[in-house]
Design brief:
By secondary structure, this protein is an alpha/beta fold. About 50% of the residues lie in helices and about 15% in strands. The radius of gyration is 26 Å and the shape is elongated. The relative contact order is 0.09. It binds 3-methyl-2-oxobutanoic acid and zinc ion (ZN).
Length: about 400
């Protein structure tokens, strides 16, 4: 079975979005957790952007020895040399060079012709290869690049020494079939030029402007892509990048459909998500897949009843599989008696059916007013009802 490599860019693309910047100590903490997760590459920063970021990448490279460290550089000499300097202490490193290739970016942003872009790509990859063993090239805005020109860009990058070609959907504009088709076309052109065993890894890097980053990444895998660039909690420019946890869990849960594996330790996903939230101060939405507070929480009575009978009724994976300590049965106005009985048992109460009925009545009445019923509310209600045990029992007998 093929392995899909996970290139984590939480510390670079993730970090460069508003509210997510991290200092060196914070980057090192997150990088250690990424190593525990067993990602295949950690992109630690963009060294030319500031002296502080260059130092942060250097420190991550010094401290995290078990995972290759990548640094980003535009196709410019100063950028490449700053990244080379930052990567110098790494046990294993990858230089990540990028240049925009869509006509829009070439004209408006870079004021370059297509030919000038090819020349920069070739010369900067050659320069990088003199210093770092592995060079990845990214064609920024590949998703909106003329496909024939993109194939030429890829050929030139490979001839200059790049072994990983990343084709980002920089602006989150692509839809799955279209994005997959771009990779098929590029791969066919690589095969035509370099042969079927060209050994180049194609990589996907998706942004979530249309909420399609994960779907596009998965479609790319079906088209033969074997590296996915993604971030913890899906953080990244604008609407974010493809969420690492969603991509890898989709591949694990739907293994029979994708027929690929990853090297990720899935049970480290939740700890990674929580650590990132703690470091950045940005909480994930409660309904976020895999790591959100509600991902394994059940409030509706019908669902709670199903889960109690067999978790497969309403869960496609166990919380433990992704490192979530336990599922939660939330008591609210939609909850059922079975879940309430279990909650009471957890709290040390063994109510009779009559008592359970009374507690249930009060809990649902409270839930009608408050959004959620907290365990201490249930304790208070249970305590009061069970104190009146004999009275309730007598009432039940006389009613019968
Ligand atoms: O979105 C993008 O195009 C990027 C590249 C720099 C890889 O982040
Ligand atoms: Zn990006």
């Amino acid at each position: 079975m093929d392995v899909v490599r996970i290139f984590d860019t939480t510390l670079r693309d993730g970090e460069q979005s508003p509210g997510f910047s991290m200092n060196t100590a914070e980057k090192i903490r997150v990088a250690h957790q990424l190593a525990a997760l067993n990602v295949d590459v950690i992109e630690a920063g963009f060294p030319i952007s500031s002296r502080g970021d260059l130092e942060a990448v250097r420190q991550v490279a010094k401290e995290v020895r078990t995972v290759p460290i990548a640094a980003l550089a535009r196709a410019r000499k100063d950028d490449v040399m700053a990244a080379v300097e930052a990567l110098e202490p790494a046990a294993a490193s990858r230089l990540h060079i990028f240049l925009a290739t869509s006509d829009l970016h070439l004209k408006v942003k870079l004021n370059m012709t297509r030919e000038q872009a090819l020349e920069s790509i070739s010369s900067m990859i050659r320069l990088g290869r003199q210093h770092v063993g592995e060079v990845e090239f990214s064609a920024e805005d590949a998703g909106r690049t003329d496909i024939d020109y993109l194939c030429t860009v890829c050929r030139v990058a490979v001839e200059a020494g790049a072994t990983v070609l990343n084709l980002p959907d920089t602006v989150g504009y692509a839809v799955p079939e279209e994005y997959a088709e771009m990779f098929r076309r590029v791969d066919a052109s690589l095969v035509a030029t370099f042969g079927a065993n060209h050994g180049i890894t194609l990589s996907a890097h998706c942004h979530d402007d249309l909420g399609l980053a994960v779907a596009n990444s998965l479609a790319a895998i079906r088209a033969g892509v074997r590296q996915i660039e993604c971030t913890i909690n899906g953080i990244g420019e604008r609407a974010g990048n493809a969420s690492l946890e969603e991509v890898v869990v989709a591949l694990a849960v739907r293994k029979e459909s994708f027929n690929v594996s990853t090297n990720i330790n899935l049970e480290q996903l939740f700890p990674a998500s929580r650590l990132l939230s703690e470091v950045t101060g940005a909480q994930v939405a409660p309904n976020k897949a895999i790591v959100g507070a509600n991902a394994f929480a059940h409030e509706a009575g019908i669902h709670q009843d199903g889960i109690i009978k067999n978790p497969l009724t309403y869960e496609i994976m166990s919380p433990q599989m992704v490192g979530v300590p336990e599922r939660s049965m939330v008591l609210g106005k939609h909850s059922g008696r079975n879940a309430l009985r279990l909650s009471l048992r957890d709290l040390g109460y063994e109510p009779t059916d009559v008592e359970l009925g009374e507690v249930y009545k009060r809990v649902t009445a409270l839930a009608d007013e408050a959004k959620q019923v907290r365990p201490r509310d249930v304790v208070a209600i249970a305590h009061e009802v069970l104190r009146r045990r004999s009275t309730l029992a007598a009432e039940a007998t006389s009613a019968a």
